[in-house]
Amino acid sequence: PTTAPVSTAMVAPTQVPQYSLDDLIAASAPLMDTNMDGLINLLSSFGVQTLQMLPPAQYAAFATGLRGLGGSI
Question: Cβ–Cβ contacts within 10 Å for residue 58, how many?
């Protein structure tokens, strides 16, 4: 008897969006007027005082935090 071949279809890995420091700055700018306390708290939660101090490896997580504050990114 023959057996059917096992499917070896590859599932594409989930892409993590790539953000630049400029992307984060642009999304943060409106929050400086509308939610400065939230922005300061978000920066503090990442252990930094400014976006320039944020490690690039944290950009995607920070972008998620910005969206939670109402940022558009």
Answer: 15
Over residues 33-52, the pLDDT tens digits come to 999 999 999 999 999 999 99
Per-residue buried b or exposed e for 19-49, using 16+ beta carbons within 10 Å of the residue's own CB: beeebbeebbeebeeebeebbeebbeeeeee
Q: Residue 33 corresponds to which tokens in the numbers above? A: 């007027």
Q: Which residues make Cβ contacts (< 8 Å) with residue 34, sequence separation at least 6?
A: 70
Cα 38 to Cα 72: distance, rounded to the nearest angstrom: 15
- What DSSP character marks residue 70? T
Count of CA atoms in the C-beta half-sphere (13 A) of 49? 0
Confirm whether pTM is higher than 0.70: yes
